[in-house]
Each structure stands twice: as C-alpha cells, then as structure tokens.
Specification:
Number of strands: 7
Shape: globular
Order of helices and strands: EHEHEHEHEHEHHE
CATH architecture: 3-Layer(aba) Sandwich
Distance between the termini: 40 Å
Strand content: 5-15%
Radius of gyration: 18 Å
Helix content: 40-55%
CATH class: Alpha Beta
CATH topology: Rossmann fold
Number of domains: 1
Number of helices: 7
CATH superfamily: NAD(P)-binding Rossmann-like Domain
Largest sheet: 7 strands, parallel
Amino acid sequence: MMRFSERVAIVTGAGSGIGQATALRLAREGARLVIIDQSEAGLVETEGMLPEGSEVLRRVMDVSDEAQVEAVVADALKQFQRIDVLCNNAGIAGRHPPITDQDRSEWDRILGVNLIGPMLFIKHVAPHMQARRLGAIVNTASVAGIRSGAGGNAYSASKAGVINLTMTAACDLGGDNVRVNAVCPGLVETGMTRPIFEYARANEKAHKLGARAELRRYGAPEEIAAAILFLVSDDASFITGQALAVDGGNTASLNLPGMKV
C-alpha cells in the first residue's frame, strides 16, 4: 500500500524504538519525512534504513523547547510546503522512587518531554493543517496513563496528561477536519525500556516479560507503528479524540499479580 504518497509526516523520537518503526513504515508507504530526536546517531541510523530515494529532513532537538519546535516546523514547511501527519512519539521514563522521595526537577524534565513537547508540536503544526482543512495527529501515550503499575509517578502522570491532551485537542481541531488520537502501548522492547529487559534476562526472569498481558507476551515497536499508521491514515477518517490501547490485552482485565498462570 502507498497510503501516504506525497504526504509529509513529522515523527518525533524517530531515532529508535516506536518512533523509528513508525518513520520506516511511513516512508515505505510513500511519505516524505521530518525525523526528530535528541540523538543524532539514532537519526542517522533511521535515515540509513529508509527506502532508497526517500525524502527526509533530519533534526536533532529538544522537543520541550518551543523556539526549537517553531524552527523545525518552519524548516519543514520551507522544504515540503505542507504537513499532513504529526506523530508525537518522543518520550522519557525517568526513575521510579516512591512519591515521598521524588525530585521536582525530574518531574519538570519528564513532563517537559512527554507532555509539553506534544502540546508545542500541536500548537505550531495544527494551524497549517487547519488552513488546509486536512491533517492527522497521533500522540504516543501509554497504558501507564490508564492505570497504575506500568510506570513511575511522573511518567504515568505525563502519559495520563497526553491522553487528556489528545481529547481536548481533538475537540479544538475537529471543526477544521484535523483529527487527534493517541496510542497507549503496553510493554514493548525499545531503547527506553531496555533496562527492564536487561534486568529480567540477567536475573532469569525473562519468562515474566509480558506475562501480565492477555496475549502472554510483550510487543514489538512495529506493532505499535502499525496502529499509529492506521490512525493517521484515511482508513481512520471518522476516528478522533480516542486513546487506543495496543497492549496485548493488558488493560482488558484486573491484571493483578498472581492472577495469570
């Protein structure tokens, strides 16, 4: 399929994991890309994996810095003259101390990247979509934003905020035919979650990875990317303001420790 032929897509967090998988899928289906990450090495790797002849603009930046966001949107419009798709995927996890031992600076950092970053990109990209009365935005949230136990306090709060931002932005932009949705991944092996996987494998607990999901396994970045591409495609033309859990059924049950065999 070439669902995104001639369309322009911005993908943040494109240097690894879900963002990289999303960028690759978009390019394979014809999209011209703006790939963004804090890691230049990651972006170079992603660009090297794109189909031959792909049109791509690469930018290393901090998504929580409004001046940088405004500049990269201007660069994208200068090079491609349009923006059709925005995938807000950049995110960080942080530490998991109890609430009584938390540090304000870590909350500021996590909320800045995970929540303020998507807000800034929507703020600066959406007006161009509204002017053309066409556009699709997907924010990467998490099952941690739906229920506790899937992340630390700051991370979970940031992802709950992303879900609510998705709904409120969808209400603001729907009248101009700009759709806003979110995906809520369960446990997926990415650069951000690598410490979890390394710990489990080093301590003979690898069999427990994904065991609390109804499918009894963890996910792959490509599976989340497939859901993102559906939501930003015309196949989802009547879907907006939704948070789609892509979690192997993790949030479908009480999911308490010891309940599953």
